[in-house]
Design the sequence.
């Protein structure tokens, strides 16, 4: 059985969606990241050395970081669908765009958010502007970022576009808006939002 280590209003929220995509049962373990005296359970600490959510355990498997979890779930429970198989030529582009989120979009987002002066050739993520330009170019004229169908790369990228919009550092272009809407309209995305709302309501008692 999968356990999702989660805290409300964090990046862990999106994992409800990923879990709904693969249709596996899961239980929740709340990690109180906002507590001054955190008392994290050992299984969580073993899975997430930085003590960050989300993390999951699945029997004796431990995975932390949203993109790593998304890849694990797809390879384990939906190979050839949510992740192209390792011998599929599209796998390379899939991996690039899946990891575009933690390696390029997230650092670029922080650059913008805390006003770090751009230095595209020095920073491994290029710059906020370059990150957006590449995304826009890639998505112009195509439905999904990596394949001819929705994959976990779309799950990660659309969620991060939505976060940039919510944090008011991005006014999405028509291309990015319609892409985000297409991803968020998936039945699993809708169920995921409902499941997180139920989990939050359960905490409130
Ligand atoms: N790259 C990670 C980032 C995870 C992350 O930053 N989590 C935050 C919540 S949004 C956290 O757990 N913070 C608690 C802490 O740093 O102690 C991912 O996407 O999973």
Sequence:
């Amino acid at each position: 059985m999968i356990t999702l280590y989660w805290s409300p209003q964090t990046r862990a929220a999106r994992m409800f969606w990923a879990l709904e995509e693969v249709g596996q049962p899961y239980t929740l373990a709340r990690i109180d990241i906002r507590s001054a005296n955190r008392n994290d359970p050992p299984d969580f600490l073993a899975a997430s050395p930085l003590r960050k959510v989300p993390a999951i355990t699945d029997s004796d498997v431990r995975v932390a970081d949203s993109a790593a979890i998304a890849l694990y779930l797809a390879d384990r429970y939906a190979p050839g669908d949510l992740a192209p198989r390792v011998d599929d030529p599209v796998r390379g582009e899939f991996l690039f765009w899946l990891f575009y989120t933690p390696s390029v979009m997230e650092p670029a987002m922080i650059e913008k958010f805390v006003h770090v002066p751009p230095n595209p050739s020095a920073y491994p993520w290029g710059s906020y502007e370059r990150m957006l330009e590449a995304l826009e170019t890639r998505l112009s004229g195509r439905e999904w970022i990596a394949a001819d169908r929705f994959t976990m790369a779309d799950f990660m990228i659309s969620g991060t576009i939505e976060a940039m919009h919510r944090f008011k550092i991005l006014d999405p272009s028509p291309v990015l808006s319609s892409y985000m809407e297409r991803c968020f309209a998936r039945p699993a995305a809708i169920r995921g939002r409902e499941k997180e709302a139920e989990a939050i309501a359960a905490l409130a008692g």
In short: The chain has a mean pLDDT of 97. The helical segments are 14-22, 42-47, 66-77, 91-113, 128-139, 152-166, 174-184, 187-204. The chain has eight helices and four strands. The radius of gyration is 17 Å.
